[in-house]
Design a protein that fits this description.
Blueprint lengths: L7 H14 L2 H12 L10 H11 L7 E4 L2 E4 L6
Antiparallel strand pairs: 1-2
Length: 79
């Protein structure tokens, strides 16, 4: 494997290691910045907490629409 090329499992372990190395106060502060409040429960795996958070938040709707094959920005034609 070349340097910089990682498998999904390698990247997951890198993220997990990084989050576990982060001091608890910093993790809680970052969580509060994203969510607006501290975590209600701390799981053993911080990366699992982030995964659950990301999966629970609906994707934002795009402000772009397609007209004649070109992306347009602004008011949707259907509103």
């Amino acid at each position: 494997m070349t340097e910089g090329a990682h498998t999904h499992d390698d990247r997951s372990s890198l993220v997990r290691d990084t989050l576990e190395l982060m001091p608890l106060a910093d993790f809680v502060s970052a969580w509060r910045a994203m969510v607006g409040e501290p975590p209600a429960v701390m799981l053993k795996s911080r990366s699992e907490m982030i995964r659950l958070l990301v999966e629970s938040v609906p994707a934002a709707q795009s402000k772009m629409w397609i007209a004649d094959g070109e992306a347009q920005r602004g008011t949707e034609p259907f509103s």
